[in-house]
Amino acid sequence: MSKYTYVCCNCKKHFFDEGVKYLCPDCSASNNPSLPPKGVLKVIYNYQDIKKRYFHENRLFESLHTNRYIDLLPIKSPDSLSPLRTGHTPLYSFFSKKLNDTFEEFNVFFKDDSRNPTFSLKDRASDLVSAFAKENGISTIIAASTGNAGSSIAGICASQGQKAIVMVPAKAPIAKLLQIMHYGAQIIPVDGTYDDAFELSLKASEKFGFYNRNTAYNPLTIEGKKTVAFEIFADLNKILPDLIFVSVGDGVIISGLYKGFEDLLQLGIIDRIPTIVAVQSDKSKNLIANMDNDSFILYPSSTVADSISVDVPRNFYMAKHFIKEYSGKCILVSDEEIIKASSELSNKTGIFSEPAASAAYAGFIKYINKDIIKKNQNVVILLTGSGLKDLKNVERLHEMPEAVVPDINAINNIF
Ligand SMILES: *Cc1c(COP(=O)(O)O)cnc(C)c1O
Predict the structure, then answer these.
(1) How do residues 162-191 score in pLDDT, each as one tens digit?
(2) Ligand 1 within 6 A of 23 CB?
(3) CA distances from 156 to 125, 148, 153, 162, 313 (A)
(4) Smallest Cα–Cα separation from 34: which of 188, 214, 193?
(5) 3-state DSSP call for residue 235?
(6) How far apart are alpha carbons 331 and 366 in whole angstroms?
(7) Which of 226, 211, 273, 291 has its CA nearest to residue 42?
(8) Poorest-confidence range of 166-175, 320-329, 358-367?
(9) Closest C-alpha residue for ligand 1 atom 1
(10) Cα 156 to ligand 1 centroid, rounded to whole Å
(11) 3-class DSSP state of 23
(12) Which atom of ligand 1 is nearest to the CA of 114?
């Protein structure tokens, strides 16, 4: 019996696990690059079989955790994963009043996924894709990226002795571009948008046979990102949070979160899914703006938060389905609110996040102003990438004081 199968989000057809799989061949045949793709695949496991296997243990979640969740990953062995430490990122606890004394009394937890090997949550997906490649004798992986997925696959591939090819918009933040090159990946800057790079990389995979890590196109990206849900549950000692705020671009991180909790629901470990709040910039709002539309309307994106600047959300249908099914919420924030939230977050917590990650905090602030969070509730804010990846947006906020001569009398008037 195979460990897992794929199910098409659109037609619900099942596919077996042999070899590389991308989109559902039937549903993707008529895909148009200017619309969200149909036919993204979801990985499902034989949940009854897992329960049976751990039948004599009443601590099912602990056993799964001890085994590095291998029963819920589409690879054979955890040893195929990168030797770098992916995931196991800290969950920091802050009392709401410490962040802002006008808040109700509740608990705020920051899951700091900038503490991954290449400083973003993307490593969770790259690590799984790379492990799958290793188990299947594939040595070259290509990806299109706004920057983080590219630096992530570059770093993870370096750790595994694999070759990475990364297509990025030439205008991506310089730190991300340098990071990709420094890990030794082959970088292909594309004179165009992320969406242009995405399409080009699909054609390159087809023509040259490279294994493709593109987000959502490769279903393992969703599976990799779901481990953050398992960790949040474990970090909170098996208490489900009431609310989770997450920034959204292509809609893979949010789907991963849902998928992780859904796996736990299928296993009877939890009995509900937390309320997840999707946050987008109002300058890149195509997932939220189209939630209730019958046909997709494209609003061109131009947000300063480059990691969530996406014209065509690649996992639109799956994310929409999850949000509807589990009564998730959506919130739009302005770029000004994102930048302000980024400063506030650093000032109040000591965590330095890139704008796309700070967007989740901006959404939380805005949500509090609209909808009261109740006393003693547990709120998780998922911080997806490091502030050092994009200094341009920070640079313009600060003015460097003039240098002083190193003489105690010269600083008399400063304090
Ligand atoms: C990729 C990314 C996101 C958005 O994730 P999606 O899966 O595209 O929705 C958010 N923040 C950071 C830092 C990212 O790199």
Answers:
(1) 999 999 999 888 999 999 999 999 999 999
(2) no
(3) 10, 12, 5, 8, 24
(4) 193
(5) helix
(6) 8
(7) 226
(8) 166-175
(9) 307
(10) 17
(11) coil
(12) 13
| CA 56 to ligand 1 centroid distance, Å | 39
Pocket flag, ligand 1, residue 393 (CB < 6 Å): no
9-18, 104-113, 198-207, 245-254: segment of lowest average pLDDT? 9-18
Architecture of domain 91-116+221-394: 3-Layer(aba) Sandwich (3.40)
Beta strands 140-144 and 41-45, pairing class:
unpaired
For the Cβ of 356 lying below 6 angstroms from any atom of ligand 1, the answer is yes
- Report the C-alpha gap between 245 and 366 in whole angstroms: 11
C-beta of 249 in contact with ligand 1 (< 6 A): yes
148, 168, 388: residue to mutate for ligand 1 pocket, most atoms within 8 A of CB? 148
Cβ contact 78:68 at 8 Å:
yes
For residue 396, the SS3 value is: coil
250 lines ligand 1 (CB under 6 A): yes
**For residue range 202-225, what is the model confidence (pLDDT) as tens digits?**
999 999 999 999 999 999 999 999
- The alpha carbon of 120 and the centre of ligand 1 are apart by a number of angstroms equal to 9
Atom of ligand 1 at shortest range from CA of 389 = 13
For the chain, give every domain's residue range: 91-116+221-394
* Sheet containing strand 14-15, strands side by side: 14-15, 4-8, 41-45
DSSP state of 199: H
In short, whether 253's Cβ falls inside 6 Å of ligand 1 is: yes
Q: How much distance in Å is there from the Cα of 382 to the middle of ligand 1?
A: 11
Q: Is the CB of 366 under 6 A from ligand 1?
A: no
Residue 281, ligand 1, Cβ within 6 A: no
Helices then strands, counting H and E runs in the chain, come out as 16, 13
Maximum distance among all Cα pairs of the chain, rounded to whole angstroms: 79
Which single residue is written with the structure tokens 């590219």? Answer: 150
Question: Residue 111 belongs to what H/E stretch?
Answer: strand 107-112
pTM above 0.85, yes or no: yes
Assign 123 to helix, strand or coil.
helix
From the CA of 248, give the closest atom in ligand 1: 9
Q: Which atom of ligand 1 is nearest to the CA of 287?
A: 9
At residue 18, the pLDDT reads: 78
Strand 275-281 with 186-190, pairing = unpaired
